[in-house]
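Lab channel / #folding
Pinned by the channel admin:
"Please post every new chain as: sequence first, then the structure tokens as a reply. Keep commentary short and put observations after the output so the thread stays searchable."

First post following the new format, from NK:
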Amino acid sequence: MRHAAFGALVALAALTICGAGGANARANGGSPRNRLKGSYAGIFSGQINSSDGLLPITGTGIFVADGRGNLSGHETYTVDTTPCDAEIVGTYTINPDGSGTDSITFSTSSTGCTGGSYTQALAIAQHGELALLSNTNGDQINEEWHLQR
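Reply from TO:
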């Protein structure tokens, strides 16, 4: 179903957008997971793979990383022409070089929307920004996370 594919894209987007926190994103010191900590504003767009083919998706969200490998948050997005709201929970790993992955599950009660899960590749950039990419189930979603100050 197109919304399940969307979920995979949203998860990827979430990781891409949320990013890592300024001082917590330093290349030195502490556990690599500590490099992703704080509240992030994210934006994502791309296409999700569905039984109807590739459908456009765009959205935004707030993502919270606890510095211990756990994520939570809320996303608002549109798949094709269907508006959706979803709560997210997930986990992440960060490598010493600042690369990593996340795995997200999202749930929604929005009419015409379904929940699902997705994974994303991520990279921590300067000043705690994150770039994310999801290609779960053929989805093609790019995401950015910006630390809220």
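NK: The first helix runs from residue 2 to 18.
TO: also worth noting, The domain at 2-147 is CATH 2.40.160 (Porin).
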